[in-house]
Amino acid sequence: MNTNIEAPLLTVETSKGFSEEEWDGIGFHLVFALIGFVLFFFHEGPVGMLAFAYLAAYNVSTAVFALRRGHRYWMQIWSYVLPLSGMLLVSTLFLVNEFSSLVFSDTQFPEVGHVPLFMALAWTMPLFLIVSTGRRIGYYQSDMATHLWVGVVSALVFAVIAVIFSHLPIWSAQDVLMAGPVAAYSLCAQVVLGVAAYAGWNLTRKAGFFYRAGSLLSVVLAYLGALALFYFLFEGALVSGVA
Fold first, then answer.
1. CB-based contacts of 172: which residues, under 8 Å, 6+ apart?
2. Cα 101 from chain centroid?
3. What is the model's pTM?
4. What pLDDT does residue 238 have?
5. In the predicted structure, residue 23 carries a pLDDT above the cut 50
6. Among 17, 75, 110, 137, whose Cα sits 20 to 30 Å from the Cα of 49?
7. What is the pLDDT of residues 161-204, one digit of tens each?
8. How many CA atoms does the CB half-sphere of 44 hold within 13 Å?
9. Distance (Å, rounded) from C-alpha 169 to C-alpha 184?
10. How far apart are CA 184 and CA 138, in angstroms?
């Protein structure tokens, strides 16, 4: 029997279909996806301030909506992925300044190490979706199967993001093996990130501050290690072998 979710949460409602909380999540993110499409694809010029406003609005709206609707798991997941998103700014700095595999356009927004600061909020939405989906899958699957499915969901989410952002003047990959608009090494590492984020949240969702902080740090380190490993495999070993 799966131990991901406590028995009291396996209600008749969740066992037969989506709960009210989950339907709210689907509707909420569809609305924000539509808003993002309208804002970014019809905007001309630098997008820095627009990106910051959109990401900040998403995070504030998530918290407010969760509190007003009484969705405690929304708050639990959001309060985990928000600081994680800020910490993942380190990984973006790593890609830009160490590997030179990622380049940002001039977004006319404050930067640190050639990375716009709004990127500190950019991971919240995809990680919220991944962790929430993992929680849902955990109702029915074993721990092992849940983590495998979370990996699949992570690959889909981050691949879609790569396709969307390939049409926006924010960042671009350079000098790396690509599968269409998707950097192969990055997608593999992002699968590790999604699984690690779900596992970290799942293991520490009732833990104290220091356990959660340690969990967040572990997720970031796992992602950095995965980036380095897959960059070496795809851009070092494989490219050298082909050459």
1. 102, 103, 105, 166
2. 19
3. 0.88
4. 55
5. yes
6. 75
7. 999 888 888 888 888 888 888 999 999 999 999 999 999 999 99
8. 0
9. 21
10. 28
